[in-house]
Amino acid sequence: MKNLGGLKYFLGIEVTRSKQDIVLSQRKYVLDLLTEVGMLDYKPANTPAVQNLKLGNYPDQTLTNKEGYQKLVGKRIYLSHTRPDIAYVVSMVSQFMHSPSEAHMEALDRILRYLKGSPGRGIQFRKYGHLKISGYTDVDWAGNVTDRKSMAGNFTFVGGNLVTWRSKKQNVVALSSAEAEICGMSKGLCELLWLRKLMT
After folding, report:
1. Could you tell me which of 34, 22, 117 has the C-alpha nearest to residue 14?
2. What residues have CB less than 8 Å from 65, skipping those under 6 apart?
3. Is 23 among the domain residues?
4. Measured distance CA(127)–CA(62) in Å, rounded
5. Residue 128 and residue 166: Cα distance in Å, rounded?
6. DSSP assignment letter at 138
């Protein structure tokens, strides 16, 4: 074995260190992906999805290449390891891997156009002088137009730094926004309790 020095690049993740912080990003991975799909010259988008995006499966939808779609979604899922800002929309498009349509492909393209505008953005870890654990949750009640299930998201901080994030469709149909929020909060609370146990 030989010492290669400080970690700078590993499995598509770039690591930048300074005295104040450590930043994880996937800039090269994003640029390679844009080149691969021929979108390097496209105009960047300001957001990862259009406002109030509702995707579903419809009888009259125009289907697209299933294998190509699955491959592209997989690459977006890998990108969300350092880009929590795309977690929600990536979770949304990954629900339609079995029968993707042109509308789903447009949503995928929008994510890439958003990434083009900020390819070097990532996660920053900094010393804040404490190890407080905090978390946030939110739910898009009955957001899925096909089965009316809610999409829940949560993220947690340890010592002021983002350490976990998740966006996932709930298992059951919530009969009210309050029920959906309580289910979402219970998942977020489980994450907080697990982190607290891990830290102690």
Report:
1. 22
2. 100
3. yes
4. 50
5. 24
6. E
| Structural domain ending residue among the three candidates 107, 122, 137 | 122
Q: Where are the beta strands (DSSP E) in 39-160?
A: 122-126, 133-140, 151-158
Say if 2 falls within a structural domain: no
Here the tokens at position 154 are 């949560």
pLDDT in tens, 113-132: 999 988 889 999 999 988 99
Range of the domain at 145: 129-199
pTM of the prediction?
0.80
> What does residue 166 show for φ and ψ, rounded to 5 degrees?
-155, 145
List of E strands, 5-150:
9-10, 13-17, 21-25, 122-126, 133-140
Q: Which residue has the tokens 């030989």?
A: 2
Q: Which tokens belong to 95?
A: 């629900």
Same domain, 16 and 98: yes
CA–CA distance, 58 with 21 (Å, rounded to integer): 47
Boundary residue ending a domain (58, 90, 122): 122
Digit-coded pLDDT (tens) for 44-82: 889 998 887 777 777 777 777 888 888 888 888 898 889
pLDDT tens figures, 186-198:
999 999 999 999 9
